Amino acid sequence: MMKDWKDMYVQSDADMAEGPQLFYNAIVLKHFVDPKNVGEMDADEADGYALVGDPVCGDQMKLWIKVENDIITDIKFKSFGCPGAIATSSMATELARGKSIQDAAEITDDDVIEALGGIPEQKKHCSLLGINALQNAIHDYLLKKMEFEAQTDDEDDLP
Amino acid sequence: MIYLDHNATTPVANEVIEAMNIALRKHFGNPSSFYNIARQARSILEISRRRVAESIGAEPEELIFTSGGSESDNMALRGVAGALKQKGRHIITTSIEHHAILKTCKDLEKDGYKVSYLPVDSNCRVDPMQVEKSITSGTILISVMCANNETGVIQPLEQIGTIARNHGIVFHTDAVQAIGKIPFDVNDLRVDLVSISGHKIYGPKGVGALYIRRGTPICPTITGGSQENGMRAGTENIPAIVGFAEAASLAASTLDEHARKTAELRDFLEAEIFKRLDAVSLNGGAAERLPNTTNICFEGIDGESILLYLDLMGICASSGSACSTGSAEPSHVLMAMDIDPRTAQGSIRFSLGKDNTKQEMGATLDALAKIVPKLRAISSL
């Protein structure tokens, strides 16, 4: 009996030496240390843009999308935030890249968390930031598209 | 592993482990019992009390052993509030106290006590004049921490102690972070009650003490047996108390050496961070601080992100930033200093200890020189 406990103490010692896996899993850590799609786009290059903030913890995020034939062909983000915010933003952009606007608009924060293999409970609100930014950027794209179509419609009406 | 979080806790000193080992093996007797082994346990309990008392210039009978800093804080506040409730119901404290003080005060407010939470200046200092101005005819207790745990800023206790004494008000200080790092003597500071913790001074966790100046009105909060002069019921935790006494003795005898050494390393770390990185600032840097503590803001990045990188590189530090502990609020200390929330979010505390080396500072600097630019490249600010 005593021996088992002793083994457990030694075991936990070894676990801790490798890092904070108990808190963030390996996939989350990978997206934190090596986030995908980090960067910016110029205004004329991006078809949709969003700036969102998390009023709860002060995190902030910018996200740009490039759209061709209703497909997100490129996506970039920058984030001032905790590891949870960086990793979930990275995963959100990975999930959205290559998807149609319609499919990308349906990605939820739960999809991001599932793709990451879970994140700590108190970090779940972080995953909303990336999703909000994605949805706002898609909204921005759709608005611009409508404006553009309205303009070209007007031009078509010219004699 | 590079451990730079000594304000959170410290490794247990070898001398302490040896002392505790003897206590655990030999002195299992209950100090309240009658026979020989009980008398032995009582004897080492009283030797330990004398050792801790000596380390802060107190008399042994003025010292009550507790389970640690939080219990000592609770005992001081609730004990004085209870003893003096007929005299008045006003308590003065500060907005930068440890939660053991702040939450206990909030609790006392529910019982009808009024609490003044004094602000601090941008360098984390309480103004003694403001303490004096806040005193009313119903003020029964003033509680101001000796040094702040997040910034290391040392408070003007001597002046506040004089004010408290002139007005005949009981004065408590939470000295958990200060003892073992700066000279501390209960008579120089004119304090009536002092909270002390074992595990911040290379002692074991779960043990601490409350210094109670003779004649201070206070009632017990843990009732039962008559241990600790009737002030704290419960069979004394002899092994922890023996370890604590060893740690307190060691801390007092090595104070100057450790203070000089940690200050040197801390100053080196700060100076090099400022040399190697831009957009960094020091929180509370203009005030007198503990020799081992530095609280640095790395603008444009989140503190927890820095901490996680450091952790992955085997370096332990801590932050007062929003998300680090899962709480949504930024550090109440940095907020009280009127620091911008985003600046607070990018702040990291390094608290050094007696065994840190210059080589470790170098490794930490190299790590920061990699991490900070990398996170800034991701930052949207």
Description:
The complex is a heterodimer of chains A (159) and B (381). With 159 residues, chain A is of the alpha+beta class. Helix content of chain A is 53%, strand content 16%. Chain A is built from 6 helices and 3 strands; from the N terminus they run ααβββαααα. With 381 residues, chain B is an alpha/beta fold. Chain B is built from 12 helices and 13 strands. In chain B, helix 3 (69-83) runs parallel beside helix 4 and helix 9 crosses helix 12 (358-378). The chains are: A alpha+beta (159), B alpha/beta (381). Chain A binds chain B through residues 17, 19-20, 24, 29, 32-33, 35, 38, 51, 56-62, 77-86, 120-123, 126, and chain B through 1, 300-302, 304-305, 308-309, 311-312, 321-324, 326-328, 330, 341-342, 345, 377-381.
Helix/strand layout:
The complex is a heterodimer of chains A (159) and B (381).
Chain A: H1 2-17, H2 26-33, E1 48-53, E2 60-68, E3 71-80, H3 83-96, H4 101-105, H5 109-115, H6 124-157
Antiparallel strand pairs in A: 1-2, 2-3
Helix pairs in contact in A: 2-3, 3-5, 3-6, 5-6
Chain B: E1 2-3, H1 14-26, H2 36-55, E2 63-66, H3 69-83, E3 90-94, H4 99-110, E4 114-118, H5 128-134, E5 139-143, H6 157-166, E6 170-174, H7 186-189, E7 193-197, E8 208-212, H8 238-276, E9 280-282, E10 293-298, H9 303-312, E11 315-316, E12 318-319, H10 332-336, H11 341-345, E13 347-351, H12 358-378
Parallel strand pairs in B: 1-11, 3-4, 3-5, 5-6, 6-7
Antiparallel strand pairs in B: 2-8, 7-8, 9-10, 10-13, 12-13
Helix pairs in contact in B: 1-8, 2-8, 3-4, 5-6, 8-12, 9-12
Shape of chain B: globular
The average pLDDT score of chain A comes to 85
By helix and strand content of chain B, what is the structural category?
alpha/beta
Q: How many helix segments of chain B? A: 12
Oligomer: heterodimer
- How much strand of chain A? 15-25%
Low-confidence stretches of chain B: none
Give the N-terminus to C-terminus distance of chain B in angstroms: 32 Å
Mean pLDDT of chain B: 95
Treating each run of at least 4 consecutive H or I residues as one helix, how many helices of chain A?
Answer: 6
Number of strands of chain B: 13
Number of strand elements of chain A: 3
Question: Largest interface, and how many residues on either side?
Answer: A-B, 32 and 26 residues
Q: Can you name the CATH architecture of chain A? A: Alpha-Beta Complex
CATH topology of chain A: Sufe protein. Chain: A
Q: List low-pLDDT spans of chain A.
A: 16-22
Topology as H/E string of chain B? EHHEHEHEHEHEHEEHEEHEEHHEH
Estimated radius of gyration of chain B: 21 Å
Distance from N terminus to C terminus of chain A (CA atoms, Å) equals: 93 Å
Helix percent band of chain A: 40-55%
